Amino acid sequence: MEPVLLAQGAEARVYAARLNGSPTVVKERFAKAYRHPDIDYRLRSTRMAQEAKMLLRARQAGVRAPTVHFADMQACALHLEHVDGPTAKRFIQERTVEEVHAVATAIGEAVAKLHDADIVHGDLTTSNMLLRGGAADQLVMIDFGLGQFTTLVKDKAVDLYVCEKAFLSTHPSSDALFAHMLDAYKASSRHGAEVVSHLDKVRARGRKKICLG
After folding, report:
1. Active site residues
2. SS3 label, residue 139
């Protein structure tokens, strides 16, 4: 089976492929012609290795994330476990209130585990979350390409702020649902109350920036 392009972003292409007869996903960080080849390769390989490390750390922290089958250093590509199921975005748009609340709880608990492991995802959208088998309690976090390791409360608050902005733009009139997610986050994270308190400061800065243009 030839790899089939599923998506392309600014830094990477994602393909559906097969590995030893089983479905897999390949995330390839492609070369940028405007960069010096040596610098380009160093950047791509470093970011690929960082993402692989984050996926491993996330799984160790109890977060469902794709298994890394292997890393192709020459191609700067990760061969990842294929997760069969809809995105959380689609699930939220199509399911009942009870099921959607269950997913919001699962998101809050998963992000809390990431932050307690000092992982900031960097792109917490409901398109970067899958529900394995369509089950609300089988949330899988994907695409850690913008992630970082950090102990700073402010970085974790910004992660939540990015999540909130993406959440509300994708799912209009869902303020209560995001609040439900935050409640689950605070209840699950060792430093949840502190991070959510700092989130209010990040929101205020965001509003000020909009007002000032």
Report:
1. 123
2. strand
